[in-house]
Design brief:
Elements (H helix, E strand, L loop, with lengths): L2 E5 L6 H16 L4 E4 L22 H13 L14 H9 L3 E4 L19 E4 L37 H14 L5 E4 L2 H7 L10 E3 L14 H8 L6 E6 L11 H8 L7 E6 L11 E5 L5 H10 L2 E4 L8 H8 L4 E4 L4 H4 L6 E4 L4 H13 L2 H16 L1 H17 L1
Parallel strand pairs: 1-2, 1-3, 3-4, 4-5, 5-6, 7-8, 7-10, 8-9, 10-11, 11-12
Helix pairs in contact: 1-13, 6-8, 7-11, 9-12
Length: 406
């Protein structure tokens, strides 16, 4: 068997991190596994075509984003899939895989021309909503994706047959032409959305969560961890982090701040990672870390915390949840979206009522009052038994074997 994974980026973004973890886990079982990316990384172990094959390859994501920006006039990550590209299918022909496994394919990497799909089993793990929308990754409160988009609320000028509608039609034609394409959803929440979408309602959807290397993410001694990140050893440590942690409204930083207002501001210190945006002065102590790519540093952050809070409004999976659980830290999140699959209420964390800041504060306080150390041991055990990369790799291998057999 020779599965080949495809992803726009090698390390940039949460999806790239999930794909790299899957690739490394699959390699231990299937040495022939390969990973192709659109953007070159000099330190990567991926196989790719030289940019000299097509000088536009390195800037393809920026061109696709620019096409969306011309309609939205915002920095919202709208990738319209307007461009056509032969790179992906040339890579497929070069690799000659038994299984083609698409992942995060935005930025001009995926060409939705129906005739270009390879004549071999194809799996697509959806890391957000982009494959079933007119171009946005997360629709927020918009439900136009269930009615073929058009009149896109992101656009300055709304029309029924706008770019979002045309892109939606193009994606639907692609999926309609390939009914055997297998879809993986990292959460039941995404699966439930996919079976309602006009694009994927007739496709088979399998739920397989993202994996994590539980030998890399491990609990560290709390005082050692706090010393390493210069946290206050005398206060409760509340941790929050994500890509665009304080600037992306979907990550719920405003909900967290409102929730924390219900707690004693002198009793805790908040640590935020994953954003370069400067935080406004608060009544409580804050330590701010920008984007972190070193898993040892992440280990320190998770291990130093008494509780991790993931107040996302929309989150397909929630890798910060599994990272925290693996490091033995209980997690508080809303009882919806991807994190609801990962947290066992009152066992390794707390699932608050969506999107109640009072309930969020109650969950934080509950963890702090109910032996965070014991909850952390439950968290670690739950993560090792359910989300370790080796287990997730086996789930993928079972699906690959089923497709090849059929």
């Amino acid at each position: 068997m020779k599965p080949v994974l495809f992803n726009t980026y090698y390390k940039k973004g949460g999806a790239a991190k999930a794909v790299l973890r899957l690739y490394e886990a699959l390699k231990k079982h299937i040495p022939e596994t390969m990973l192709f990316t659109q953007q070159r990384n000099k330190k990567s172990r991926t196989t790719f075509f030289s940019p000299w094959v097509n000088p536009l390859v390195p800037i393809q994501p920026y061109l696709d984003f620019a096409a969306g920006y011309a309609h939205t006039y915002t920095r919202n990550t709208y990738f319209p899939a307007k461009l056509t590209s032969n790179l992906l299918y040339r890579q497929i022909e070069k690799a000659q895989p038994d299984i083609v496994h698409f992942n995060w394919m935005q930025g001009g990497y995926m060409d939705f021309a129906p005739e270009k799909i390879p004549s071999r089993p194809v799996v697509w793990t959806l890391h957000d909503f982009w494959p079933i929308t007119g171009g946005c990754s997360y629709p927020g409160e918009c439900e136009r994706l269930f009615d073929r988009c058009g009149n896109c609320p992101l656009f300055r000028h709304h029309t029924p047959n706008d770019l979002s509608y045309r892109v939606f039609q193009r994606k639907q034609a692609f999926f309609d032409a390939h009914p055997d394409l297998q879809i993986i959803a990292p959460s039941t929440w995404l699966r439930d959305t996919l079976i309602k979408s006009p694009i994927t309602q007739y496709h088979t959807v399998t739920v397989i969560p993202n994996g994590i290397d539980t030998t890399a993410f491990v609990p560290l001694e709390k005082n050692e961890a706090r010393n390493a990140i210069q946290a206050n050893r005398e206060k409760t440590i509340i941790l929050f982090g994500a890509m665009g942690a304080t600037s992306n409204p979907l990550k719920g930083f405003d909900l967290l701040l409102e929730g924390l207002s219900h707690l004693d501001s002198k009793s805790f210190q908040l640590i935020v990672f994953g954003s370069t945006t400067k935080l406004h002065k608060q009544k409580f102590s804050i330590i701010h870390y920008p984007y972190i790519h070193n898993h040892r540093m992440l280990n320190y952050l998770y291990s130093a915390a008494d509780v991790m809070v993931v107040p996302s409004r929309q989150e397909v999976f929630g890798q910060t949840v599994t990272e925290a659980l693996a490091c033995g830290t209980a997690v508080v999140a809303f009882n919806t979206n991807g994190p609801a699959d990962l947290i066992t209420h009152l066992k390794n964390g707390f699932l608050a009522s969506p999107f109640s800041t009072e309930s969020l504060a109650e969950g934080i306080q509950w963890v702090l009052n109910n032996n965070p150390e014991a909850l952390g041991k439950n968290a670690r055990k739950h993560c090792v038994e359910n989300f370790d990369s080796s287990i997730i790799a086996q789930s993928h291998i079972q699906l690959y074997n089923k497709l090849l057999k059929n």
